[in-house]
Amino acid sequence: KAGVTQTPRYLIKTRGQQVTLSCSPISGHRSVSWYQQTPGQGLQFLFEYFSETQRNKGNFPGRFSGRQFSNSRSEMNVSTLELGDSALYLCASSEGLSLDTQYFGPGTRLTVL
Amino acid sequence: AQSVTQLGSHVSVSEGALVLLRCNYSSSVPPYLFWYVQYPNQGLQLLLKYTSAATLVKGINDFEAEFKKSETSFHLTKPSAHMSDAAEYFCAVSGASSGGSYIPTFGRGTSLIVHP
Q: In 3D, which of A65, A30, A28 has the Cα closest to residue A46?
């Protein structure tokens, strides 16, 4: 099976812009989670989607949003970008909501200037 | 509430030497514990996980970890380091969330350096 894919891999934006990142899970996986990784804050959970429904949300402002489509592909959107949003955004998929193993994609490196 | 402390942001070993990466956790519910590895410019890969079965957990690439409730620890070991083990290692703890899934809390990571 193909692994988790994320597009684009690299992105440069300026403050105030918005950005949409995409994640395609492993075929058959219904759960997609998003994480933000920065040197200062480490790995932080953003949100989790299962069967097109947001099941959990981390402690991030409302500028961060996401959605999941019927084919389990997921997008996350960040509006009104700030310099502090520069990070590696990781997507992970798993079969279900339990303790199924999460498989991570390579991430999207977002740089905000 | 749950948290993870990884002792040592960097650990340096010689090739062939024992690898020991330390992780202590805090959890208000029975914890589930994980170790992940991250290579440069890649996502995380699960090495092993503890889900309340055997306390000694064996993972991929000869890594293993032992759950010690009395010490609230889940240290990662490997008998003999290889150059290819050089990477960032993350310990994570999770417990059931209100949404019915297990959202992990990650430690800050330990960079493993392997010298020839």
A: A65
